[in-house]
Amino acid sequence: MSLTSEVFLVGDDGDLDILTGERDGRPDGMDLAGPESWRTTVWGSPAVHRIGARFLPALVSVHNGDVVGPAEIPAFLAELALVRTHMERLAAETCPPDRTAEQHALHLAGRLNGIEASALYAQRVGGGLLIW
Predict the structure, then answer these.
(1) Are 8 and 18 in contact, with CB atoms under 8 Å apart?
(2) Rounded to 5°, angle at Cα 16 from 12 and 17
(3) Prediction pTM value
(4) For 96-105, how does the pLDDT look when each residue is reduced to its tens digit (9 = 90+)?
C-alpha cells in the first residue's frame, strides 16, 4: 500500500468531499506520499518530530478525517519547507537498509514534491489535504 495525499473540500453539511477523477486537477502520480510504512518510519519518525514538525507526525494516528484543514494549508506548506531544510539529516536518520542515504533523500524529495503539489492545489481550490 501507498500513502496518498487527497485534496478535499468541506461541504455545507461539514462532510468531506474528496476530489477524484476529473474533479481532481492534479497530474497523475502527484498524490503519492510514500509507502504505507513511511507513516511511522519517515513522516512520524523521531527525526521528523525533532525538527518541530506537527502535521506529518500526526499521520501515525490519523486514519480518517482531515489531516490539514483548509485554514491550515499555509502552516503545512511552511512545515514542508522546514522538512526540506533538514532533508539530508532526515534521509540519513530514516534510511532503510536497502538503499543509500543519497538514494533515500531523492525518494523523500520526490514524495515531498507530490505532497507540496497537492497542498498548493488544495490552497488554490480552498480545500484541505488528507494523507492516508
Answers:
(1) yes
(2) 90
(3) 0.91
(4) 999 999 999 9
Q: What dihedral angle (degrees, nearest 10) is formed by the CA atoms of 77, 79, 82, 87?
A: -90
Domain residues for 125? Answer: 2-131
DSSP per residue, 72-129: GHHHHHHHHHHHHHTHHHHHHHH--TTS-HHHHHHHHHHHHHHHHHHHHHHHHHT-EE
pLDDT digits (tens, 9 = 90+) for 54-69: 999 888 765 554 579 9
Q: Cell numbers of 125, please?
A: 481550490
Q: How far apart are CA 57 and CA 47, in angstroms?
A: 10
Distance in angstroms (rounded) separating the CA atoms of residues 93 and 49 = 12
Please tell me the total count of domains within the chain. Answer: 1
Name the DSSP letter for residue 38.
H
Q: State which amino acid sits at residue 3.
A: L
